[in-house]
């Protein structure tokens, strides 16, 4: 089990699985571009208390496992990450531009899943059992 994080007023362990897809699944990500996308995500993550735990990619999408604080604004982080990485990748790797649809890099949508912890059934049973000893 991972160590719990904390701040002045709380203890927490919040982990997420983020999947971001290239617009129309264009296959433009190679090793070099993947490394740059990760760097951008980690740098921007510092402003949102987001820390990457794992990262990998396919030619048309990326998978990121990260942890965050309770006050992290995840949708703002994801939008900033997508915006900056789109702009910088197109600038630094101009060879991808012709492969994109109307120069859009990321699909507007994304998938964000919570992870870790006990299975839901275990949590439900634990909560149901509370107060039985009154």
UniProtKB/TrEMBL annotation:
InterPro entries, A to Z: Transposase_17 (IPR002686), Transposase_17_sf (IPR036515)
Gene Ontology molecular function: DNA binding; transposase activity
GO BP terms, alphabetized: DNA transposition
Domain Transposase IS200-like intervals: 11-130
PANTHER family to which the protein is assigned, alphabetical: TRANSPOSASE FOR INSERTION SEQUENCE ELEMENT IS200, TRANSPOSASE IS200-LIKE PROTEIN
Alphabetized NCBIfam families for the sequence: transpos_IS200 (NF033573)
Name of the protein this chain belongs to: ISSoc3, OrfA transposase
Organism: Acididesulfobacillus acetoxydans
High-level lineage: Bacteria, Bacillati, Bacillota, Clostridia, Eubacteriales
């Amino acid at each position: 089990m991972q160590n719990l994080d904390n701040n002045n007023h709380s203890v927490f362990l919040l982990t997420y699985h983020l999947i971001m897809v290239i617009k129309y699944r264009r296959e433009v990500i190679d090793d070099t571009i993947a490394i740059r996308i990760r760097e951008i995500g980690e740098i921007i993550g510092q402003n949102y208390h987001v820390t990457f735990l794992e990262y990998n990619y396919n030619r048309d999408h990326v998978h990121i496992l990260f942890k965050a604080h309770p006050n992290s604004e995840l949708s703002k982080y994801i939008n900033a990450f997508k915006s900056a990485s789109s702009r910088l990748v197109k600038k630094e790797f101009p060879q991808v531009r012709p492969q994109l649809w109307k120069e859009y890099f990321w699909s507007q949508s994304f998938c964000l899943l919570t992870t870790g912890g006990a299975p839901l059934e275990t949590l439900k049973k634990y909560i149901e059992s509370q107060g039985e000893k009154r």
